[in-house]
Amino acid sequence: MMRITNVSQINELFGNEQLKHPLITLLRPNEAKIVPEIKEKICVDLYSISLKDGSECKIKYGRKMYDFQGGTLICLAPGQIIEPISRAEIKEFEGWNLIFHPDLIRSTNLGAKINDYSFFYYESYEALHISDHEKEVISGVVDSICAEYQQNIDIYTQDVLVSNIELLLNYCKRFYGRQMLTRKHESQDIVQRFEKLLKSYFDSDEPKNFGLPSVRYCSEQLGYSANYLSDVLKQETGKNAQEQIHFYLIEKAKDMLLGTSEPVNTIAYELGFKYPQHLSVLFKKKIGVSPNEFRK
Questions:
Q1: pTM for the full model?
Q2: Cα separation of 93 and 2, whole Å?
Q3: Rounded Cα distance, 35 and 209, in Å
Q4: Measuring CA to CA, how many Å separate 221 from each of 107, 206, 213, 227?
Q5: Within this chain, do residues 176 and 189 fall inside the same structural domain, yes or no?
Q6: Does an H or E element contain 14, and which?
């Protein structure tokens, strides 16, 4: 596996001139001086925001149902894997790819909250599909970023770059919100399938055998990334995936406390808790009283 750890490697790979800022670069792959043949998987330790424009490209980001033909935006966090890419596929990539090193935002407000932008961890088929107007908006921000990092570096350079990157990410968050609203029917279907999955899980012996269901388990069963599933649930229900699991768990515990005479410890084990006291802690946190007090 090829590993890319700095912006300079990206510039060398595509024949970019060594630009004036070592932590950020903008690629237009189909216009690159060198069109590489990438025959192995790549692990990139950089943030990447890519806009695929024009005709459909076969780079293995994948595509699914979408709303607009204007373009597809892909966001990747450091450490994610990109599949091998042929030279022909790179030549077909119309659009741009903004790449920056984590050090650029380290010790900034954006660096402290970068994980709040959960779309960096979505799966490929959960990409953002933007309209022509939205494309103009974000491309304008990217043009400003490009113009800034090509100037001589001064004491304001990092602040200007980071504030523009944050603006770009906030637009992405807004447009993802729009996409989830326009896919209302699909989102409601996800909620129903999630609820059905939890009911099926807790009605079986799986909690006793395998413990509590994790967000990752649920997302894999439904065919989505954990972050995307949580964001859809939050949009539709006001609770993310973990909160939904806890909600269903507490409701199930209430039924067992009032509908059976089993001790609290037994109920905890049947619900998948490794340690019974963990049920009591969670129950009191959510309901305000202990399981025994609730039963009384």
A1: 0.70
A2: 21
A3: 52
A4: 37, 14, 11, 14
A5: no
A6: helix 7-14
Burial classification of residue 185, based on how many CB atoms lie within 10 Å of its CB (0-12 exposed, 13-18 middle, 19 or more buried): exposed
The structure tokens listed for 90 are 């790179």
Domain that holds residue 91: 2-182
Cα–Cα distances (Å) from 285 to 47, 129, 246, 291, in that order, read 37, 40, 11, 11
Long-range contacts of 264-268 (CB under 8 A, 24+ apart): 264/291, 264/292, 264/295, 267/291
Give the integer Cα–Cα distance in Å for 268 and 257.
10
pLDDT in tens, 33-82: 777 777 888 888 999 998 887 655 444 433 344 444 457 888 889 988 77
Is there a single domain that holds both residue 103 and residue 20?
A: yes
Burial 208-237 (b: 16+ CB within 10 A, else e): eeeebbebebbbeebebbbbbbbbbbbbbb
Other CB atoms within a 10 A radius of the CB of residue 129 amount to 22
Distance separating alpha carbons of residues 5 and 181, to the nearest angstrom:
37
Instruction: Kindly report the number of other CB atoms within 10 A of residue 26's CB atom.
Output: 18
**In a shared domain, residues 175 and 206:** no
The CA-based diameter of the chain, rounded to the nearest angstrom, is 75
- The CATH number assigned to the domain holding 31 equals 2.60.120
**CA angle in degrees (0–180, nearest 5) for 101-104-109:** 125
Residue ending a domain, among 146, 162, 182, is: 182
Quick one: how far is CA 238 from the chain centroid?
18
Pairing type for strands 42-44 and 2-4 reads parallel
- What is the per-residue pLDDT across 101-115, written as a single tens digit (0 to 9) for each? 999 999 999 999 998
Of 249, 295, 296, 243, nearest to 270 by C-alpha is 249
Residues 53, 143 within the same domain: yes
